[in-house]
Amino acid sequence: MATSLYHVTTSRVGLRDQWLGADQVSQSAFRSISFSSRLSDFSLESLKTRNNVLSKKNYKVLLVKAKSNLDGMDIDISLSPRVNSVEPSKTVAISDQATALVQAGVPVIRLAAGEPDFDTPAVITEAGINAIREGYTRYTTNAGALDLREAICKKLKEENGLTYTADQIVVSNGAKQSVVQAVLAVCSPGDEVIIPAPYYVSYPEMARLAEANPVILPTSISNNFLLDPKLLESKLTERSRLLILCSPSNPTGSVYPKKVLEEIAKIVSKHPRLLVLTDEIYEHIIYAPTTHTSFASLPGMWDRTLTVNGFSKAFAMTGWRLGYIAGPKHFITACGKLQSHFTSGACSISQKAAVAALGLGKAGGEAVAVMVKAFRERRDFLVKSFSEIDGVKISEPQGAFYLFIDVSSFYGREAEGFGIIEDSESMCRYLLDKGQVALVPGSAFGDDSCIRISYAASLSALQTAVERIKKALILLRSGSVAVV
Fold first, then answer.
1. How far apart are CA 82 and CA 328, in angstroms?
2. CB environment 321-352: b (16+ within 10 A), e (fewer)
3. pLDDT 10s digits, 246-300
4. What confidence tens digit (pLDDT) does each residue in 173-184 have?
5. Where is the Aminotransferase class I/classII large domain (predicted)?
């Protein structure tokens, strides 16, 4: 009988790969895992596998062939060097791993995904339901429904001090799509994309998809993970095309003060090719007295800035998949051109819901204020709790719903029955194994000394998680120190 080779995943978490014969696929492809027998085998090391970034001048394609005995034909199954240069999202992988464990009956507390645990406000959901009932289920224009784009313009004017017209807005299937389309629209092969670290996990990969080079600028926990303007100035070159700023930040929760942004703006103004993309998706999740400043509102920066925002976080609309970008018409038209070939317009039902969301009032009104109040209570609890743990360093977040803590003092310790904690990935595996808490390693965000905790979970769940993490770290602290 003819036999073909298939590349399949052999665990429910999608992280362990091997080549199997066709007769083995049905038995192995969906093999479940148990916490006791398989969790110790879970390794984020597999996520490190990637090809080096391939420059435009040096594409080296590795030909991989699958052979079928049916006809003796070799089939070229190689992938694009552009795709090979991209690393899978660790946040998605770990969230999927935690979900699989929960489905298998393991009481894992999932603090990896950046998704509010609140329901979408009723006014918004009703607008979506009414859109379906009223037959608003056809394509909208590619850039988004006019009433939504006009509502976005009104919001940006009243809340951010930014003046745009509807043709300077493109609505996309989530803010992530808006960001990647902007990167592809303005970057050429060999350009440099300046990215402060810690960064949102997808930014460097988006640059690589555009065949641009991500230039990572480190920040420090002692400076609240804010980019030092002097460091930025020292790293800019004639190839610098795009600076990406995320404020409030994923993963740190840091918020850029207006004074720091003004210093950055002065530097940007000296470089004619340099544009700035600001990811403001967490804008409304911010803790007073901290305030948000849109970079495009600073003197001379409107023409240089692409502003991305959306509805997923503040309005608890992650599954509705809706974001937008605003900027000078020349750049926005280019983003719309890409979208016309990628996805066309966003979901019509979601767009009607978004109009209702923007109608809730400034900063989302009372509905969002209730969520922010809960996030602040959770943040305060976590900051207090982890401040009491010897060896943990903290920068108090001023926005978003993440705590990015430095646990590097525990590296080099050996845990009985687990092994040596070498880095943030092994720390997260250890806490998943011993504490049954799913977190994200800082290496995913460009800072291996830290781990990210999402507090988009109930206070009771966070209280339990903290107790588990404390016990696991105390055990680690009492363990032996490995000799390197």
1. 28
2. bbbbbbbbeebbebbbebbeeeeebbbbbbbb
3. 999 999 999 999 999 999 999 999 999 999 999 999 999 999 999 999 999 999 9
4. 999 999 999 999
5. 107-469
Token code pair at residue 78: 């190689």
Question: Tokens 């895992």, residue?
Answer: 33
SS3 content of the chain, % helix, strand, coil (to 5): 40, 15, 40
What CA–CA distance (Å, rounded) separates 176 from 89?
13
> Measured between alpha carbons, how far is 260 from 433 in angstroms, rounded to an integer?
41
Q: d(Cα 368, Cα 349) in Å, to the nearest integer?
A: 21
**Single-letter amino acid, residue 392:** V
pLDDT for the residue 319: 96
Share of the chain above pLDDT 70, in %: 84
Summarize the confidence of residues 118-146 as an average pLDDT.
98
Nearest Cα residue to 179 out of 112, 238, 250, 231 = 250
Q: Tell me the residue length of the chain.
A: 484
Contact (CB, 8 A) for 342 and 177: yes
Residue pair 480/414 in contact (Cβ under 8 Å)? The answer is: yes
Q: What is the pLDDT of residues 10-30, one digit of tens each?
A: 333 333 333 333 333 333 332
Q: How far is CA 330 from CA 158, 209, 277, in A?
A: 24, 21, 15
The position carrying tokens 């000394």 is 449
Q: Which two tokens stand for residue 112?
A: 């990896």
Cis geometry, peptide bond prior to residue 218 (ω within 30 degrees of 0) = no
Amino acid occupying residue 299: P
pTM: 0.83
